[in-house]
Amino acid sequence: MPEDKKSKIVQAVVDRVVNDVVVAVIRHPDAAEDEPDTFKEIYIPGERFKDFPNEGDIIPIDPDKPDVITVNIGNTIYCEVLFFMAYADNEQVIFKYEEKHTMSGLYNDADDIAAILAARRKFWKAANDDKFSLERKNPDKQIYFSKSTYWTDKCQDKELFTAFVRQIAFKGYANNIQFEAVKFGSERIPNKF
To answer: N or C: at which end does the chain have fewer Cβ atoms within 10 angstroms?
Structure first.
C-alpha cells in the first residue's frame, strides 16, 4: 500500500490574473538541475483571495493542490521571543505572547493584516518591557534580542507564519528598517522582529 507523501509548501510568483483565476508560477518540480528556467503554472480560484493579488506578488502554495496555502487562520496569534543574556554564564531566555483575533482564512484580507500588525506592535512593546525587566534583574549581563517566531492556534507552521508576518512588514505596512538600526525602547519595529 503506497504511503501518501506530504506535500512541500513552496513560494509561487503571481504571473497574471485571468477572469476569476490567479495564475502563479513555480519552478517545475520535475525539472533537472541544469534546467533552472523550467516553470509550472498553478491555477488558483479567485475566491481564495480577499482582493486579487498583483503581478509579482509571492504567495505560498502546495504544488500538489492548486490552491493558496491558508496561513491566516485561527483565533489566537502567538509570538515567541528569544533573548540572549551575555557575559559570565551566557544563557537564553524565552518569553511568549499572545493576542486574540479570529482570522478570515482569505489570503490577503485587510482586517487580518491590520490585526497581525497590531499584535506585532503589542508584542514588540511587551518584548521591550521584558528586556528592561531582565536588565534590572541582571545588571552584570548584556541582554540582546535574538529572534522572534510567530504562529497561530490553527497554523502551527512557525517558519511559514513568521515569513508571512515579516512579508507584511516588508511591504511597507510598517516601518521598513533593519534591526541593527533600532535601539530598544524605540517605537519603530524592525522587520526582523
So the answer is: N
| Residue 95: Cβ within 10 Å count | 18
Give CB contacts under 8 A, 24+ apart, made by 108-115: 108/49, 108/50, 108/51, 108/53, 109/50, 109/72, 110/50, 110/51, 112/72, 113/168, 113/173, 115/77
Among candidate residues 115, 82, 76, 117, the one with its CA nearest the CA of residue 98: 76
Q: Kindly give the interhelix angle for 110-137 and 158-168, rounded to the nearest 10 degrees.
A: 100
pLDDT tens by residue, 105-125: 777 788 998 999 999 999 999
Kind and range of the H or E element at 165? helix 158-168
Give the pLDDT band of residue 96 (cuts 50, 70, 90): very high
The pTM (predicted TM-score) of the whole model is 0.67
Q: Find out whether 159 and 165 touch, Cβ atoms under 8 Å.
A: no
Which is nearest to 150 in space by CA: 61, 90, 80? 80
- The CA distance from 161 to 21, in Å, is 24
Q: What is the dihedral of CA 11, 80, 127, 130, to 10 degrees?
A: -170
C-alpha dihedral sign at 174, 177, 180, 183: negative
Task: Tell me how long the chain is.
Answer: 193
Q: What three-state secondary structure class fits 178?
A: coil
